Structure to design on (527 residues):
């Protein structure tokens, strides 16, 4: 648990080749906040792609660093279970919060099926015009020529409106969704939104659960509609969840809120950063707007909005020549798989017209593969279509501030200036 | 070479001659058939190449394997003749195959 962590040797600022592989601990948050994790993963992929870390803030764990190996682990859910948790951090014992992303079959499938339709491509087509209008309104309100924070004014605002739409949550209270999402993923600490993991659960139980309970009861009493709460309140597998299984209710709300919020938000921010770092790609885009279609999955690969997913070994097994024991934590580092030169050509280059841009691991694979993947792509596509109609450049004018997390890979600030056409 | 026809959900037909041994997914991707994204590249691991086999061809194409079943079972739009097209290999026996493309994937 994070609040009782022992001080450990930091890997920050040390040349990766000066640290023995056996002492590697790539779960250290500072590596991600400083964007210095890359060379550690490069060495692991080359020298010890299935790596055992004997001691960390989160206990011992295996690192899976190659693209193909990640796909193998995801494809074998009988050996590599999603229970009890899908991040390196273990859940609090006193709060048995559960969500379908952290469940195995058959419960996972039963619950996922009830909400999957809301984000299926067919339903997305109905949402497209609404999203486009919202994006237009946000972009039209930006202060042209002045410096402002892109994260706050565009990325957060847009993904929040999107979330409120998916839940049919009162639009005027939509900022609560962002707040709860941030509470759910914040790293505890004195300067953080939450002081401890217990504090986190208390905030959510006190504010988020009652708010959704009210909406749930309202939707359950009404005819079925096409929002996530209504779908869950009416489906056989989930309709008793809010009243009978409150922790499961909270867990699944958090899954849908965080899943649809942080990830897209950080990809929208990342896209501005990457195009500024690669002016020749920005020029290519301005010359040919059709490249948005291949740029969007490339943004998602390059950003890798979640650094990892975790599995737990269900029985002793051999993987990549290593002996794994029942109960071992296995961390699939998506952030590393997406830079694996054996699976992706020039993986460190941001190339907006790749031949197979969707060949990345950001969404995971197998039965737990991200169900909002096409919604995320649609949001990014619309954002860029609308930006190109209005601005000749979204110019980065300062250093980005990165999220202090080993799970959510993103930005808390991105100072920009927009230049009208 | 064998003939294969993809029928889009709006009824438009796209026909190609393809080498035996290629998967239906490969043929679709090579010809930019819409709605077959094949994100994982043919590993039976992403379900973005979901198709409905035309009923007349179902017996010849054969049934799903267990990995395919696990991943397709999550889809509420799954039908009795659903397959992942990366798992169907073209052969002389399948010359003339008709594949329907689901609207949900478009």
């Amino acid at each position: 648990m994070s609040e009782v962590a022992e001080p450990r040797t930091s890997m920050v600022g040390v040349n990766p080749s000066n640290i023995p592989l056996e002492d590697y601990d790539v779960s250290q948050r500072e590596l991600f906040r400083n964007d210095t994790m890359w060379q550690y993963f490069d060495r692991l992929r080359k020298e010890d792609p299935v790596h055992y870390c004997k001691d960390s803030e989160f206990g011992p764990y295996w690192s899976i660093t190659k693209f193909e190996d990640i796909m193998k682990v995801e494809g074998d859910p009988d050996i590599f279970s999603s229970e009890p948790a899908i991040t390196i951090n273990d859940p609090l014992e006193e709060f048995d919060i559960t969500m379908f992303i952290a469940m195995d079959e058959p419960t996972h499938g039963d619950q996922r099926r009830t909400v999957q339709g809301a984000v299926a491509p067919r339903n997305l087509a109905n949402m497209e015009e609404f999203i486009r209008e919202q994006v237009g309104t946000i972009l039209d309100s930006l202060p042209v020529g002045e410096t402002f924070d892109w994260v706050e004014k565009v990325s957060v605002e847009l993904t929040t409106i999107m979330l409120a739409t998916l839940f049919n949550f009162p639009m005027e209270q939509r900022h609560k969704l962002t707040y709860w999402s941030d509470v759910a993923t914040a790293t505890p600490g004195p300067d953080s939104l939450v002081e401890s993991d217990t504090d986190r659960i208390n905030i959510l139980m006190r504010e988020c659960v009652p708010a959704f309970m009210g909406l749930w009861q309202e939707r359950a009493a009404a005819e079925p509609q096409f929002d996530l709460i209504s779908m869950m309140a009416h489906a056989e597998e989930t309709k008793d969840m809010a009243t009978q299984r409150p922790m499961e209710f909270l867990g699944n709300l958090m899954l849908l809120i965080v899943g649809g919020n942080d990830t897209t938000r950080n990809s929208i921010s990342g896209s501005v950063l990457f195009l500024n770092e690669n002016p020749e790609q920005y020029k290519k885009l301005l010359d040919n707007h059709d490249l948005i279609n291949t740029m969007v999955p490339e943004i998602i690969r390059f950003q890798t909005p979640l650094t990892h997913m975790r599995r737990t070994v269900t029985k002793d097994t051999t993987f990549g020549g290593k002996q794994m024991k029942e109960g071992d934590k296995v961390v699939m580092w998506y952030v590393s798989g997406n830079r694996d030169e054996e699976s992706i050509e020039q993986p460190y280059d941001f190339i907006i017209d790749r031949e197979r841009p969707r060949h990345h691991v950001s969404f995971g694979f197998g039965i737990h593969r991200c169900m909002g993947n096409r919604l995320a792509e649609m949001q990014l596509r619309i954002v860029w279509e609308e930006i190109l109609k209005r601005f000749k450049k979204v110019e980065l004018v300062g250093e980005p501030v990165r999220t202090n997390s080993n799970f959510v890979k993103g930005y808390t600030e991105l100072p920009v200036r927009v230049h009208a056409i | 070479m064998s003939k294969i026809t993809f029928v889009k959900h709006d009824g438009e037909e796209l026909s190609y001659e393809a080498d035996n041994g290629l998967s239906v997914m490969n043929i679709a991707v090579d010809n930019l058939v819409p709605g077959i994204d094949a994100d994982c590249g043919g590993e039976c691991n992403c379900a973005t190449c979901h198709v409905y086999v035309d009923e007349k061809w179902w017996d010849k194409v054969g049934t799903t394997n267990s990995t395919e079943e696990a991943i397709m079972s999550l889809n509420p739009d799954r039908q009795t003749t659903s397959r992942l097209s990366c798992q169907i290999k073209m052969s002389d026996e399948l010359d003339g195959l008709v594949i329907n493309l689901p609207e949900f994937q478009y």
User: Anything to note?
Assistant: Chain A touches chain B at residues 71, 74-75, 77, 105, 109, 112-113, 116-117, 120-122, 356, 358-359, 363, 365-367, 369 (CB under 8 Å). The radius of gyration of chain A is 21 Å.
